[in-house]
Amino acid sequence: MRTTLTEENYLKALFHLVDHEGKVTINELSKFLNVKMPSVNNMMKKFAEKNWVIYETYKPLRVTDKGRREAALVVRKHRLTEMFLVKKMNFGWENVHEIAEQLEHVHSAVFFDKMDEILNYPKFDPHGEPIPDKDGNIIAQDLQKLSNCTAGETVVFASVTLSDDSFLNYLTERNLLLNKKIGILKIESFDKSFTIEVDGKQEILSRKATDKILVKK
Q1: Distance CA 15, CA 32 (A)
Q2: Distance between CA atoms of 13 and 102, rounded to whole angstroms?
Q3: Closest among 126, 156, 176, 146 to 217, alpha carbons compared
Q4: CA-CA-CA-CA torsion for 100, 101, 103, 108, nearest 10 degrees?
Q5: Which InterPro entries does the record cross-reference, listed alphabetically (predicted)?
Q6: 3-state SS class at 164
Q7: CB-count burial class (<10 Å; 0-12, 13-18, 19+) for 69
């Protein structure tokens, strides 16, 4: 039986929220999806019947291997679509999320496999996030938040986490794009804002911004 649009949205939420132990709470899902907890509970009971999660009252959910794969395949469709829109249709990286939200619910594996082939099997989406393969496997990345770095370091902008269009526009306006080298000049002790240098130009980033930027050394 095909997954419903609502089920796919829950699966995608599980993908984003699950911790390194494969756990996530009902409350976290409720806040992330902006859905009342009784509704989340009911859906997770259905997921347990499908063996996507292990559901126990008053305990965190545990996502099964089957659940991880199902979640990754939804994310695969979303990220492939975003890459196609940027690489083949010349959309900006800040303009693809909403379209991908709609197309990710298309139920045709061959459609997305063909998209993957046309793109020459990309490993990452336009925002630097890994694209799961057709079996739901995903590349592990050794990245950290820019906010966790220290003054004097030079790092490479590798990915953006769950960012909305306004933040992507904010980055584009400052020429803060993937694979750019970021020199960390100063970190304010008061508000943890960063003074950085990119392409010889200085910018000041808030803690909110540096928390969303993932880098590699």
Answers
A1: 12
A2: 16
A3: 156
A4: 110
A5: DtxR_MntR_Metal-Reg, Fe-transptr_FeoA-like, Fe_dep_repressor, Fe_dep_repressor_sf, FeoA_core_dom, HTH_DTXR, Iron_dep_repressor, WH-like_DNA-bd_sf
A6: coil
A7: middle
